[in-house]
Amino acid sequence: HEGLRRYRILEGVVETIAPELGQPRAVLAHGGLVYYTLPKQGRVLRIISPDSFTPELVGDFSKLGVFLEDLETDGEHLYLTVVTGDGPGLIARAPIAVGEVGGPVEVVVSGVGGQPSALVADEGCVYWTERESGSVFRAKKTPQ
Questions:
Q1: C-alpha closest to that of 69 among 29, 16, 26
Q2: What is the pLDDT of residues 93-116, one digit of tens each?
Q3: Quick one: DSSP state of residue 32?
């Protein structure tokens, strides 16, 4: 399906948000904002208001890989698993403070297997799974 969808519980209505942006993959709600990936474009966007249909760019990860798989936040950065398509994947991040639109994208760790998948973060580390091997990995959140 094209566009991000939301369901308004009280009205019982499904709405499509920004249908022109393609097919979102991962979605994350945090701090009243909704973050989502556009994996084929390599971009992460956010909806800044429940009544807004205009997305805001969080980061352009397209130079790092070919597919954004999952996202997670620690409240300061948005972390993503990135499949590169021609070698080991990586974990990358971008700041999420309002006003830092399209902030700097940083590689946290590279060489994380061909298809890094699910991702979580805690106070000091990120953890992810690797689809091909079924392994679970951990790395410090500070970029290499």
A1: 26
A2: 999 876 556 678 899 988 776 688
A3: T
